[in-house]
Amino acid sequence: AQKITQTQPGMFVQEKEAVTLDCTYDTSDPSYGLFWYKQPSSGEMIFLIYQGSYDQQNATEGRYSLNFQKARKSANLVISASQLGDSAMYFCAMRGPDRNTGGFKTIFGAGTRLFVKA
Amino acid sequence: DVKVTQSSRYLVKRTGEKVFLECVQDMDHENMFWYRQDPGLGLRLIYFSYDVKMKEKGDIPEGYSVSREKKERFSLILESASTNQTSMYLCASSYWDRDDGANVLTFGAGSRLTVL
To answer: Using CB atoms, which residue from B40, B56, B107 is nearest to A44?
Structure first.
C-alpha cells in the first residue's frame, strides 16, 4: 500500500535560516510523483514543488528545493532563507496508480507545522 | 481569480441532519476530489470523480456520498451527519492525464463542518 510519513509535527526555524522538512514514502510502483503543498492559516492549500520518480535532478522552485533520495524513499523539502510568511502547515504528497480504479490518486502525509521566528 | 469555490466556509449542523457541501471549479478540469483534513492525520481522500456522473471511492467513503451532474460541480453529501464527521473538508480539482506526471491539485479554501 502507498503511504506518506511526516515525522515532524512541528518545527521552529530562525528567520533567514534554512530548514528541512522530512518526508518518507512507501510504494511498490516504479512510477510516481511527489509534491509539497503549503497551507497558511487562511486554509487554502498552495502547490510548492514537484518531483517525478524518474527525474535525475532534484527539483527547485525559488527558495524551495526537494532533496530526492530514491533509494531511501525520501523527499525532504528544503526552504532556504526562511521568511516570516513561511509559517504554515506543509504537506508532502504522492501521486501514483490506484489499483482499485486503474486511475491515479494523490495521498498526503500528516503535515508539519513550521514556525518562523523573527 | 478564484478557481475552486466551496460554497460554505463554516457550517454547524446537528446530528442526523443531511449536509451538502458544494464545490465548483472554473478550470474545465476533469478530475475532482473531496478530502477531509484532521489534525495529525493529514488529508484523507473521501471520493473522487474522473468525469461527469462518475465517482470512485477513496480511502474513507463510509458515511459519505457524492454527486457530479456537471463537469464543474462536485458535491459531497452526508446523509445523516454524525459528530465524528466534524472536520475540515477540502475540495480539489485537476486535469486528466494518463500517467502520474506533475498533475497538481488546485484546492478550494475549505469548509469547516461542526456536527453537534
So the answer is: B107
Cβ pair A103:B50 closer than 8 A: yes
- B-chain residues within 8 Å CB-CB of A105? 45, 48, 58
B16/chain A closest Cα distance in angstroms:
27
Which of A28, A78, A30 is closest to A53 using CA atoms?
Answer: A30
pLDDT tens by residue, A37-92: 999 998 889 999 999 999 989 999 999 999 999 999 999 999 999 999 999 999 99
Q: For residue range B56-68, list pLDDT tens digits in order.
A: 999 999 999 999 9
Which residues lie below 8 Å from residue A57, measured CB to CB, with a gap of 6+?
none
